[in-house]
Amino acid sequence: MRAFTYERVATPAEAASAVAGKPGAKFLAGGTNLLDLMKLEIERPTHLVDVQDIEGLSTIEATEEGGLRIGALVSNTALAADERVRRDYGVLTRAIVAGASGQLRNKATTAGNLLQRTRCPYFYDPNLPCNKRNPGSGCAALEGYSRQLAVVGTSDKCIATYPGDMAIALRVLDATVETVQPDGQTRTIPFGEFHRLPGDEPEKDNVLVHGELITAVTLPRPLGGQHFYHKVRDRASYAFALVSVAAVVQPDGTGRVAFGGVAHKPWRVEAAEAAMPQGAAAVTARVFADARPTEHNAFKVPLATRTLAGVLADAKG
Fold first, then answer.
1. This prediction's pTM
2. Cα angle at 64 between 91 and 215, to 5 degrees?
């Protein structure tokens, strides 16, 4: 790990200003992903701005619109266990407990979960070219073993997947992300617009600007219906998804669905959801119409269909 300087701040504005003032600065909260990447020298911040002392970012509050506002520093454990989340947003609780370990969930924060970086093995090996780690260096995954990697939304520069579980549920719930920018202005970002596809700039995972701090994630009014999160992985625990399905299914068979483990971001095609009463194959035919799988991960498309079929079968009881 390379040397860095460190400071603790007390307000969101102070944090945003401190990072924006130094090109090599980064925010630090739970640190469960950032510190691992620093040890590998994939991340090389010259200055860390610790936001854990900021008041008001560790609470979950009801909104006037009937939803919930989740502070950026709420731990994954606290969020999954919140009575209101368990009752009204069960897909979110199920997604969180499907990820990581209990120890990691105790430390990981809501905002940090959204900002975790890909677990593509070529990204984690500094001896191999990776456009996400070193822009313009090439992509070893394109010609390498790609079983874990993306099948849809890819580019000629990157086929990495977004690794998280919580974000797949937030996408199906139509959450929004609240931020404060270095100039003091705040903005609200629809969740579907928060993470980016790789395109020609795979090094950019999301739409935040340098120094922009996430302050909260807001959930709209509860959707009702049955909530599901099915995750298919290589072992029973502590593994990233090959395919995951977050879904909310209503009594008449209509609903919403988003997929994880298949793209550079949580993957949801709203236009395909009208086909949910016709069954899983009708939905995934539309969701993966533009898929470009490799010879190693072509199994993910039929696996996604079977996983969604399991969800719909469970919904029927």
1. 0.97
2. 65
